[in-house]
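Re-running Pro-sigmaK processing inhibitor BofA family protein to confirm reproducibility after the cluster update. Everything else is unchanged from the original entry.
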Amino acid sequence: MSTGWVIALIVTGLLLVIAASRSVMGPIRWAGFVAVQLVIGAVLLFFANLVGELADFHIPINPVTALLTGLLRLPGLAALIIIKLWVM
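Result of re-run:
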C-alpha cells in the first residue's frame, strides 16, 4: 500500500470513531434537527408564497423565517403573515 492510502484509512478510521462517540452525537443530532426544521419551514413558506401570489403577497424565504416557520409550523407562519401585514 502506498502512504496516501494508509493515511486515508487512518483518517477515515478516526472520523468513524469520533462519529460513533456519544460526545459528538449530541451536536450532530441537533444539527440534523435544525436542518430538517429549516427544510420544513422553507417548504411551508414556498407554499404560502404560492398562494399569496394571488393577492400580491410575499414573505421572503431566508434562514430566519424558514427556521421560525419550521419550529412553530402554522402558528409561526401566521405570525409572519400578521407581522408582514401589520408592521410593513
